[in-house]
User: What shape does this take?
Amino acid sequence: MSINFNKYHWFAFYASQQIMPAEIRARSMWNTDIAVWREENGSIHAWKNRCPHRGMRLSYGFIRGSQLVCLYHGWNYEGATAQCSYIPAQPNLKGPKTACVRDFACFEKHGLVWISTVAEAEKEPDFSDFGEAEQTIHFCRSIFVNESPGLVGEILKTSIFIPYGNDLADGAKLKIETSQAEHHQTGANYQAIWQSGRDKKKKTELTCQTEVRNNAILVNHYKDDQGNEGSLIFALLPIDDKKTGVHVLFSGDFSSQSLTSAKRHYAKWAKRMRWSIENRNLQTDSFNPWI
Amino acid sequence: MKLYDYILSGNCYKIRLFLSFLDINYETVPVDYYPGREHRFPDFLEINPLGQLPVLVDDEVKLRDAQAILIYLASKYDTSGRWYPRNPEAMGKIAMWLSFAGTEIMNSSNARLHDMLAYDLDADKARANAHAAFRILDDHLVEVGFAGQEWIAGTQPSIADVACFPYVALSRDGGIEHDDYPAIQSWLTRIQSLPRFIDMPGIHFMK
Amino acid sequence: MSKIVDPFTLNQWYAVRTENKNGPDRTHRTRLLGVDIICQDDENGQVSIRRLDRTESQDSELPSRKRYGLVWTSLGMPESGIFEMPETEEEGRRHFVWDAVTVKTSGLRAIENFLDLAHFPYVHSGILGEEPLTEVTDYQVERINNEIWVKDCSFHQPKAAAIAEEGIHVNYIYRVPHPFVSILYKTCPLFPEKFDVIALMVLPREEDVCDIYTTASLFDNVNTDVEILHFQQKIFLQDRLILENQVPKLLPLGGRSEVSVRADAASIAYRRWLLDNGLSYGACTG
Ligand SMILES: N[C@@H](CCC(=O)N[C@@H](CS)C(=O)NCC(=O)O)C(=O)O
Ligand code: FES
Ligand SMILES: [Fe+2]
Assistant: This one.
């Protein structure tokens, strides 16, 4: 079970909900600066973040209808073709053929925009085993860790978390039953006991199993003795060799109120996770944000 | 009403932006902050002994500090009451973020002054501190966003948003990118879409 | 010096300080073409300039000149004096020298931006241009005495200068006498038969970092110095946002990596002129 960041894969690039119609955002994937944007009708595009005219970063531009307009000289690029369609300085000139932005394959699924920088990327990520996936997978947040993708992946593979439904109040303790050695070797299967911070007598037994999908997605299936069951999913984005994006998602059935609490719960976990990875030198154990 | 103003100052822009939101007419007194350092000479030190911009003069009232000026303007001129709601919780939260805007977020200003106007400041340290502050703001916006709250201190834009906005938006002038803070980016866009939003160099309109 | 500087770049005069600005002990430190230098004023206001990468004192001394309110030096052997700008002596004009703003890009990108009309409606919207009046009509480009001259440019501007009260049609002439200097002449809103003169004097600190000094000789009998400063800085800092976000930072001279149209004739001529003069500092081949 190994995590693989080679570029022949789809990577989760951006959260769909963070790019509204007529908005543009950018970040890097393996050092390539990529702009993602939506037409006013909602269609999504992922383009190299550079205007072919004078190299301006397109993410500073703006969207009109189906066109991306560069901030520098207002050249228009048509969403569907990435081809320059209008040059304001020369309104009667047809955009030169060479004025074409490099575009990347992209699609939306499970609340994320997935990108591949090569044409022949492998198969799309699949979460159909979670049921009617679009409803049962929830996006929590994207979080950025100042460590290399390889390291973040390795640490997250053996990471430990507490399912929603358990109380994360101060003073809570987690004890891993599986031996350290075993835990590290098998990668991810572990059993643990969670002791509530509020009620010291309250203990929860927890089993967890991790799998890697499509090379850079970690799926943690969990079960506890309180009947909580579900999955926590980390879709990893290699930004560069010093930074990794982690899109945190989770599955399960929630009422709208408990969904909000579940998001808070996993967001809290995500922040602890970021702290633990970036402050490894202050820690004794392998990755466990509650030590 | 008279605003002692410098065109490139994010703190002065806080006030210009808010006056525009409130649709209030005022005069500006342009100050030669760079390169003239006019704010460090006796004429200006009489106006503000700290030698800082902005300063607002409204009849008998003379105020320094952008955050103080925002409180004054909202309290006096915002008839809707939404920019500075008078309830203890809202006032406490707004004060907390006003202070954040005047301290932590100012690291972004230091990096910008170094990179743009050659101020002798530790830019790498300022950048690191600004990133730490932006993380705190981004985490906050993510978390309140789960319950549908889109603004820093409540369900309506407040002076806390106005105070935090300029130096977050201008940080790229000082080499601090926004890529890692998607919730901040969505919030910046919301502010830029408010009625009567105005721009400044480094913060452009979204046409 | 990190990179061999081509002779065309090396043998130029560069503005390294304003005449009146000074640091503690009447010294001013800066960087020119990757070399640390120091300017030192004596009691009579004479400026001596030294490079700090050489130990022998006779090797470290650099020439020093004052012109246009700026202090100039060179790391090479300039073939001639500092270029002439006769307008700066004309009666009735107000002269300005504005201290440097640092921009993290090649100085050549900054000069090219200065020669460009097409960005006005987008980058300086409501001031130097406005949609839908975006068209750049044909203009002339010439080489005269190894300088670039761009003539017969015209553009509609909502607020051409601090003094302008309404939109006017502005004529432009540009002159590039030096790879890192450009001078523009534009219709003066006050006296439509006269030209205001604005010049950009770039100090390339490194290939991809520069300090930009601006001078102006304007007709304006209304605005204060500070009002004119604010107008100028507003425009200049709008450009800075663009300049710091162009990729790559070095100016491509190979003609392959950036697409040009007729409206870019000044930029193309500038790039070709740099190439013909063997310039490579601050440029790349793409
Ligand atoms: N706390 C003040 C700080 C204002 C401030 O730092 N202003 C800058 C201009 S943006 C200034 O005048 N600095 C002058 C100095 O400290 O030298 C506020 O929020 O208004
Ligand atoms: S650089 Fe994009 S339009 Fe000119
Ligand atoms: Fe410009």
Summary: Residues C 113, 119, 123-124, 239 surround fe (ii) ion (ligand 3) (CB under 6 Å). The CA atoms of residues 171 and 177 of chain B lie 7 Å apart. Chain B is about 50% helix and 10% strand.
